[in-house]
Design brief:
The structure holds two protein chains of two kinds. By secondary structure, chain A is an all-alpha fold. In chain A, 79% of the residues lie in helices and 0% in strands. In chain B, strands 6-7-8-3-9-10 form a six-stranded mixed sheet, with helices on both faces.
Chain lengths: 244, 321
């Protein structure tokens, strides 16, 4: 536990040791603002909620989170520190979890810094803060799921660009799985079980379900199981691939 | 303290390490020698638990690295090949991180880091990011990291690589100083380093141990063992060489010419001492000898004779192609 925390602390500090962290936060906030106010018609809707803000998070994460996760293991591999790191007296699980939690916490910090949006809606009108809180929870869970996927991908390569592209592609597949376009393509021929399964793995559908303000167990289980499954995959992949 | 039994590592069809066994006791400094690609680093990676062996075991102070990895790793200090360290951390942050992972806390950690920083002479770069350090400093930070927890077993993969001659001398002094209470394995391709710090040497090539003994034992296997070198002021080196070849106990005589100085190298039969006989004979004959040296044997010569046969097939293949 203390070792996981030591790894967590080093990793989190690592983000702020380079301009990467600040750059990431600034780009996240600017893009979130642009999408909310210009594309999401925040003011024209005349509603004191953050729906237009959260709607674009999946797309933001599709691009930004892989940029955060790509370095998790690829960088250790490239610089050779993975050999130093994994010969310290730590369990592989502690290494994997410590790294993931640091990245997730960092995503959380970026998310918390969007509080001016929340202040704005509360100033403009009488907003339902419960729904907004659910939206933040959904957004953070989705960030965690994407990070876990990205961490596992990062574990198999020393090339950060490859890690970025593959993660973005995987997340894109998970994202569009539940959209009407994909389901429409399947409808004519696929059995209903398959269609339901495809719709069920959709990142966006589960995200949207929570942002509506209903924190259902099945959506929580969905995100947490993606996180756990990909962290387990991460550990297995590191163990298998650390030699090369 | 360190026991290695029949370690084997295969990467697909390639056998990188092929049944390596040895034991290192407290007080021993083992020099791990071998050409590039001999399996030195792979063996070290298995001992330290980075790579799982295909078969065989490595036991550190009674703890098998495979079955009790945490207990074993706690007792090892390891400098991996190339001395990797987190480039964006300062030396102090990096050592603090390793100390924390190693279970050192608070005052104890600070005292230990301060002590090691002084010992390894890195105190003046403690607050510099590691990426800005010179190669020599980076290497020393890597060694410092390996020593923080005062490990019983120290595995150093090329500890003096990138150091200047003064720093090399210093590092060897440190290793010798530490050696009485530790089992130390250093890999190197500098033979002079083995003679300077190791009390035992293993030559490995093609993944196998080819020789194991004290540096003096190994040097004695050289054809230069007990050879006598003569510097001649003038005179006909060829005639003198011919006369020497007839002497009992002389295996061969080579004529050398170093910087215009004529000389002879007289090889001893079976490495038996011949210097006395040669001195007497030279005086008898009135040869203009200005210098006479007895060789103890050359480690590099032994190294080449032992490892060269293994490299022959490869060059033969190249020629065929």
């Amino acid at each position: 536990m203390t070792r996981t925390f030591t790894i967590f602390r080093r990793e989190l500090r690592g983000y702020f040791a380079t301009p990467l962290a600040y750059l990431f936060i600034v780009i996240f906030l600017v893009l979130a603002g642009v999408l909310t106010f210009f594309v999401g018609n925040f003011f024209d809707r005349g509603q004191a909620d953050l729906q237009p803000f959260f709607t674009f998070h999946p797309w933001l994460y599709l691009v930004l989170i892989p940029a955060l996760s790509m370095r998790l293991w690829a960088e250790e591999r490239k610089s050779g520190t993975i050999e130093l790191f994994l010969t310290l007296p730590i369990r592989l699980s502690e290494a994997v979890i410590g790294k993931f939690l640091a990245a997730w916490c960092f995503a959380g910090i970026a998310l918390v810094l969007t509080f001016p949006f929340w202040v704005t809606v509360n100033v403009l009108g009488d907003s339902d803060n419960g729904v907004i809180l659910a939206g933040y929870l959904a957004s953070w869970l989705m960030a965690g799921a994407v990070l876990a996927i990205g961490a596992a991908v990062s574990a198999v390569t020393k090339n950060q660009v490859i890690a970025f592209v593959v993660t973005a592609a995987l997340v894109f597949v998970l994202a569009v799985a539940g959209t009407p376009v994909v389901l429409g393509l399947l409808q004519p021929w696929a059995p209903s079980g398959v269609i339901r399964a495809v719709a069920g793995i959709s990142l966006f559908a589960h995200f949207a379900a929570i942002t509506r303000g209903v924190v259902a167990v099945r959506d929580l289980v969905y995100f947490l199981s993606i996180i756990v499954a990909f962290l387990a995959a991460n550990a297995v992949l590191i163990d298998l691939k650390k030699a090369d | 303290m360190l026991e290695i039994n029949h370690l084997v590592k295969k990467f697909g069809p390639l056998t990188a390490v092929d049944g390596v066994s040895f034991a290192v006791a407290e007080g021993e400094v083992l020099g791990f020698l071998g050409p590039n690609g001999a399996g030195k680093s792979t063996t070290m990676k298995m001992i330290t638990g980075f790579l799982a062996p295909t078969s065989g075991t490595a036991v550190i102070c009674g703890h098998d690295i495979e079955t009790e990895p945490l207990a074993a790793k706690r007792r090892i200090g390891y400098l991996p090949e190339g001395a990797p360290a987190y480039p964006d951390m300062t030396t102090a942050e990096f050592l603090d991180f390793v100390a924390h992972i190693r279970g050192l806390r608070g005052v104890e950690a600070r005292r230990r880091i301060g002590y090691i920083a002084d010992l390894i002479h890195i105190a003046d770069v403690m607050h510099q990011p590691i990426e800005t350090l010179s190669k020599g400093y980076r290497r020393r930070v890597g060694v410092a990291q390996a020593l923080l927890h005062d490990p019983s077993v120290l595995i150093l993969d090329e500890p003096t690589d990138g150091l200047d001659p003064n720093q090399k001398y210093e590092m060897r002094g440190i290793i010798r100083e530490l050696s009485p209470h530790k089992a130390i394995v250093i890999s190197t391709h500098l033979l002079e380093e083995v003679e300077a710090v190791c009390n035992r040497a293993i030559i490995i090539a093609g993944g196998r141990v080819l020789a194991d003994g004290t540096p003096a034992d190994l040097a004695a296997r050289s054809r230069y063992h007990n050879a006598v070198r003569l510097d001649l002021a003038s005179g006909d080196a060829a005639t003198i060489a011919a006369e020497l070849r007839e002497r009992p106990g002389v295996a061969a005589v080579e004529i050398t010419a170093d910087e215009g100085q004529a000389g002879l190298c007289v090889f001893a039969q079976d490495g038996q001492p011949i210097s006395d006989a040669i001195v007497r004979f030279a005086r008898e004959r009135g040869w203009p000898v200005t210098g006479l040296y007895v060789e103890r044997g050359r480690l590099d010569d032994v190294f080449r004779t032992i490892t060269a046969p293994l490299e022959l097939p490869r060059s033969a293949l190249l020629n065929a192609a």
